[in-house]
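Give me the 3D structure for Vacuolar iron transporter.
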Amino acid sequence: MAALNDVQIVTIPKDSADQNQCNLSVAPEVEEFDYSKRAQWLRAAVLGANDGLVSIASLMMGVGAVKDDVKVMILTGFAGLFAGACSMAIGEFVSVYSQLDIEVAQMKREKRMVENNEEDVEKEKLPNPFQAALASALAFSLGAIVPLLAAAFIADYKVRLAVVVVATTAALVAFGGVGAVLGRTKVVRSCCRVVVGGWMAMGITFGLTKLLSSRGLEM
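Predicted structure for Vacuolar iron transporter (219 residues):
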C-alpha cells in the first residue's frame, strides 16, 4: 500500500495538450521563390545569347552562300561578334538606363519618402543598366562563338555549312531550355520557339544572299 501511495499521477492541462497537437499538425510555411526577380538579367542573358548565336550563324551562312573560303567566313563571323557584342551592350545600357530614369522620376513624383531601410529595399528593385549591359555583351559573345568554333576546323564547304546549322540548332535548344528552367516556363515550347526562329533567320539570310549573288552582286 505504501508503494501505491508513493505513485504520483501527472496530468497534462488540456490547453497545453491542444497547443502541442496544433504545433504538430501545422507544418512550417515554405517561402516560395519569386522567379520574376530573375526577369531582368534573365531576359538580357537569353536575348543576348540567342541574338549572338542566330546573328553570327546567319551572317556566316550568308557569306557561305557566295564564298567557300573558310577564312572569309571566320573573319566575317568575328567582325560580327565584336560589332554585335558592342551594339548589344550599348543598346541594353541605354534602354535600361532610360527605364531607371523613368522609375526614379515616378518615385519622386509620388513622393515616397520612407525610412532608410525601406528605401534600401526600393533601390534593390531598380534596374541595373551596367549589369544588363555586361550580361548582354557576354551572352552575345557566348552565343556567337558556337558557329565560329563549328566552322573553324572544317575545310569542306558543304560539310562546314551543315555543321554550322547543326551546332546552331543544338545551342538554340540548350539556350532555350536553360532559359525555360530558370524562369520556370515550359521547356518544349521555349525550345521550339527559338529553334524555328533561328532556322528562319539562317534560311532567309542564305537565300537572299544567294539571290543577290545570282543577280550579279558578288563579294
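The radius of gyration is 29 Å. Let me know if you want a second pass.
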